[in-house]
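Researcher: I'd like a candidate sequence for this fold, 385 residues long. If you have to choose between options at a position, lean toward the conservative one.
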């Protein structure tokens, strides 16, 4: 395979038809390719000629690494905004579907994107299977009439709606989406350097935050909670791994806290694993998502709040309180989180090692098979149907 790249030029690459093999061609459409989605592209590559449609320019400013996965073609897309910036439009997607007629399209399920709706309609008209991959309506209880109609229409137009978790599927079934259109591929990520739970002592003095420093991460709450435990004489240190739009402000505001260690944006799994060895638990105090799975991979029981609809993704639902991690009340403020950390710091090391083992087991279960392999199987079934 080649790794041809187009910038914003809408034309097809010269000689493209001549280089196409007999393997099916699949378009994989994302707003950007985060590092954890590279495994998805690699798994799709095993079965298909994969053309990735995404934006890569400027993603570092939002705390992402710029990834260029190996694929048949990487199409650099622009994302424009319409109608007072409420509607999004991703360039090249519709035209390339209509002109090339791929064997299938796998596209992210953000219903604010006009390009999603155009891809669904075009797929119906020209007979191209379009599979959408998303979170469902777990955040919205009740969903509301307009939102319910919108999602029911999207599922009706799609060949399959691939749900992030069982909670995602349940939320769509509750608004009347047909169960036979819904399939679950537990949202996960693969980590190249994991931590074996046998290396954990259960008495480490660190708490690890890993993720983008963005609106909703609420790292301030965690800094204050750890500070309260320090003031009470407990040996506890906060390790913050991540970059993003709030990174510099947070370091300015809390740079005088000697119990906070700032690492910035770290993308090397081995380096992150080494940092994690100093930690007893991980904590995402705000709207968490896939960081939960990364903490599982490091044998760090995650600490998250208990109100799933307020999370960025449904993945915090993987945490079982007291078994694979710990939950604190979402409305408890700094003191609610501090109380949970006090409870953890009072547990004997043996109990913490058991929880670390359960967290590690959860990671391996979520990756058997990996998300990419599961998605490849689902797309392959649609292509063969």
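Model: Candidate sequence:
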């Amino acid at each position: 395979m080649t790794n041809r790249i187009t910038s914003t030029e809408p034309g097809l690459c010269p000689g493209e038809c001549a280089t196409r093999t007999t393997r099916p061609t699949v378009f994989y459409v994302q707003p950007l390719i985060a590092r954890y989605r590279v495994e998805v592209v690699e798994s799709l590559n095993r079965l298909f000629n994969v053309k990735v449609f995404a934006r890569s320019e400027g993603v570092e400013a939002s705390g992402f690494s710029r990834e260029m996965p190996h694929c048949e073609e990487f199409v650099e897309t622009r994302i424009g905004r319409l109608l007072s910036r409420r509607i999004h439009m991703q360039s090249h997607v519709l035209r390339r579907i209509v002109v090339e007629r791929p064997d299938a399209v796998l596209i992210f399920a953000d219903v604010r994107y006009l390009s999603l709706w155009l891809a669904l309609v075009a797929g119906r008209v020209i007979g191209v299977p379009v599979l959408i991959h998303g979170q469902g309506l777990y955040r919205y209880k009740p969903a509301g009439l307009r939102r319910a109609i919108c999602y029911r229409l999207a599922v009706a137009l799609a060949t399959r709606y691939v749900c992030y978790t069982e909670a995602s599927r349940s939320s769509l079934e509750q608004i009347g989406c047909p169960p036979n259109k819904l399939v679950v591929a537990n949202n996960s990520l693969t980590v190249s350097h994991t931590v074996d739970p046998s290396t954990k002592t259960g008495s480490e003095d660190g708490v690890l935050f890993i993720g983008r420093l963005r609106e909703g991460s609420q790292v301030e709450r965690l800094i204050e909670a750890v500070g309260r435990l320090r003031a009470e004489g407990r040996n506890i240190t906060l390790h913050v791994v991540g970059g993003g739009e709030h990174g510099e402000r947070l370091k300015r505001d809390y740079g005088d806290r000697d119990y906070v260690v700032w690492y910035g944006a770290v993308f090397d799994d081995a380096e992150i694993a080494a940092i994690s060895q100093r930690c007893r638990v991980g904590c995402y105090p705000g709207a968490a998502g896939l960081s939960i799975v990364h903490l599982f991979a490091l044998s760090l029981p995650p600490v998250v709040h208990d109100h799933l609809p307020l999370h960025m993704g449904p993945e915090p639902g993987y945490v079982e309180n007291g078994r694979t991690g710990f939950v604190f009340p979402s409305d408890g403020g700094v003191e609610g989180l501090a109380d949970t950390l006090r409870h953890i710091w009072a547990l004997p090391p043996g109990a913490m090692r058991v929880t670390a083992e359960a967290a590690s087991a959860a990671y391996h279960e979520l990756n058997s098979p990996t998300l990419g392999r599961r998605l490849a199987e689902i797309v392959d079934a649609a292509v063969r149907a």
